[in-house]
Design goal:
alpha/beta; single chain; six-stranded mixed β-sheet; globular
Length: about 250
């Protein structure tokens, strides 16, 4: 009888987790839809119109990656085992089913960002990691705000180096005032496997955590995606998009 109760509790907990994940997916879809709709109703021309269209494209790509990740998690893949190796690095995956971009894993499409979105005019490279957290999104390390833990770090997609115009437009569409400045955010580390072994797998907060987005910038509190400048006057504008909040 006791075993049956335990099993029922596990089923209930699994159902609650699945329900929360599905709600999160719906919220992200709604936000992406809002940005997309603005491209149909917004006016203007030139750089402004280009930025408007680009902002919709930019938010849609990581949203599709998120859908693949959520599907993997629902299917039983542990969050800590996710690997974002691009197709040229599939041979280094711990196993094909944990590869977000592998056909036998998440089946997400790996893609670079169009050059027109980037400040240097070259195709942009996405960074996927679990080195940072969003303030008040999911669980925050309240004992030491600003210092994520491996248990509270969110899985986030970053695109460093986008244009200032695009960064500003994205925030405008999301109701974020101006372009906030963040420091200490790790937008370099990639959640990949470098040699197919456990030791080659990048752990959450590998080598130490980054920082907390929104801790010192109230406009980014609990924001699942948006844009910030990494270090004041650096000119490095970074788009972020949470794939899994923890």
């Amino acid at each position: 009888m006791m075993q049956n109760i335990k099993n029922q509790n596990r089923v209930s907990e699994s159902g609650n987790v699945l329900f929360l994940i599905l709600i999160a997916v719906a919220l992200f879809a709604a936000l992406s839809y809002a940005v997309t709709q603005s491209t149909r109703t917004g006016g203007g021309s030139g750089d402004n119109e280009t930025a408007l269209i680009s902002s919709a494209q930019l938010t849609q790509y990581p949203a599709t990656v998120r859908t693949s990740v959520v599907r993997m998690i629902i299917g039983g893949t542990d969050i800590g085992n996710l690997e974002f190796n691009d197709p040229s690095e599939f041979s280094n995956l711990g196993s094909n089913p944990v590869g977000v971009f592998h056909p036998s894993g998440g089946g997400a499409t790996y893609s670079s960002a169009p050059g027109e979105m980037m400040d240097d005019g070259n195709p942009g490279t996405w960074v996927f990691n679990a080195e940072n957290e969003i303030y008040y999104l999911g669980t925050t390390n309240e004992a030491a705000p600003g210092t994520p833990l491996s248990t509270t770090a969110d899985v986030i997609a970053f695109l460093p180096g986008i244009t200032e115009t695009l960064c500003s437009r994205i925030n405008t569409e999301l109701g974020i005032s101006g372009i906030p400045v963040e420091t200490g955010i790790d937008v370099v580390t990639n959640l990949v496997n470098t040699d197919g072994t456990d030791s080659g797998h990048t752990d959450f907060c590998d080598g130490g955590c980054g920082a907390t987005i929104g801790q010192d910038v109230a406009t980014l509190d609990a924001q699942p995606f948006g844009c910030f400048e990494l270090v004041a006057s650096s000119g490095n504008y970074v788009y972020f998009h949470v794939l899994v909040e923890r």
